[in-house]
Write a structure and sequence with these properties.
Length: about 325
């Protein structure tokens, strides 16, 4: 019998690992070329301005005179600035009211809109529409609704025999009016909650019902734990957005009356563009960044105690 000759290896002068390295190199170049628009945008519009604002926080500059290095004087001024503490108090009060209310109302409405009933898609669209409207436009609408003499809200209260407050004109009610105004645009968190509810397996509810669990028991022991990642996501976003609130107060009240709605960003805007103190405003911006970072880290660190992930074991949760 003739011996079958083995196939000859392809002649090459280059080891295979060199070819693989060249391929990986070309692949890396292609990857960075593809993400280069994002990288350019990040460094030009995010990292660059952040670095510039950090450097500005150590100078004195009114846009017209030469820049003067003042070191940490801007941060030292903040401690003695009464308006800063007022703005911080108002912002914290607004966050303490708006964040829990927004999550409770969003979840309650999501529970209703997640039901399999006819026409529910129409109501989902109606509730989501305010989230895509211009912030200035809906604030102007609410300013008319809160108008003390001719506004729709006080007219309805008058028909019920209730004397309506002066809402945005009264320091005692202006902040509460802004909270009500802000609760109108909960469409984004609402849709997120609906998506989270749709992701909960029906078998869990069926098994709980067979075990005798009522509606409250199923909500407490199934819905809340399974929805906890969505609650965590919405909570972090709500905190960040609340501390950065500007349009509502700037358009509706301008920070008044008597600084009762002086949000942090409204005060920062005054310092930056009304008083023309770029350095001091930059220092205020970095203080806000640190506050948001601390609160976000606090929520993230606490998540191990109350956020449940379906593929996570008890041992991993304890870590």
């Amino acid at each position: 019998m003739k011996r079958i000759k083995s196939a000859r290896p392809l002649a090459t002068n280059e080891p295979i690992w060199n070819k693989r390295a060249a391929f990986n190199h070309r692949e890396a170049i292609a990857f960075y070329l593809c993400i280069s628009p994002w990288l350019i945008g990040f460094f030009v519009f995010v990292a660059g301005p952040m670095l510039a604002s950090f450097l500005l926080s150590f100078v004195s500059w009114d846009y017209f005179t030469p820049i003067k290095w003042v070191g940490t004087r801007n941060y030292e001024r903040i401690r003695e600035d009464e308006a800063f503490w007022t703005a911080l108090r108002v912002t914290f009060t607004f966050a303490a009211l708006y964040v829990p209310l927004s999550q409770i109302i969003s979840l309650a409405v999501a529970l209703m809109l997640a039901q399999k009933i006819k026409g529910v898609s129409f109501f989902r669209t109606i509730f989501y529409l305010p989230a895509i409207l211009s912030g200035t436009a809906y604030v102007v609408l609410w300013v008319w609704l809160f108008e003390p003499d001719k506004g729709l809200i006080n007219n309805l209260l008058d028909r019920l025999g209730i004397k309506g407050p002066r809402w945005l004109s009264d320091p005692n009610t202006a902040l509460y009016a802004l909270v009500i105004m802000s609760l109108w645009g909960l469409g984004s968190s609402l849709i997120t909650y609906i998506a989270g509810l749709k992701g909960i397996p029906e078998q869990l509810y069926e098994a709980a019902e067979l075990d005798g669990a009522g509606k409250f028991g199923r909500f407490r022991y199934i819905t809340i734990p399974m929805l906890s990642p969505t609650i965590f996501f919405n909570l972090v976003l709500a905190l960040i957005q609340t501390f950065q609130s500007y349009t509502t107060a700037a358009v509706a009240t301008g920070g008044g009356p008597l600084d009762s709605t002086l949000f942090y960003l409204v005060y920062l805007y005054r310092r930056a563009f009304v008083n023309q103190e770029a350095g001091y405003a930059a220092a205020l911006a970095w203080i806000l960044f640190i506050i948001i970072l601390l609160f976000t880290l606090l929520v993230v660190r606490s998540s191990s105690a109350w956020v449940y992930y379906e593929n996570e074991t008890g041992k991993e949760r304890r870590k």
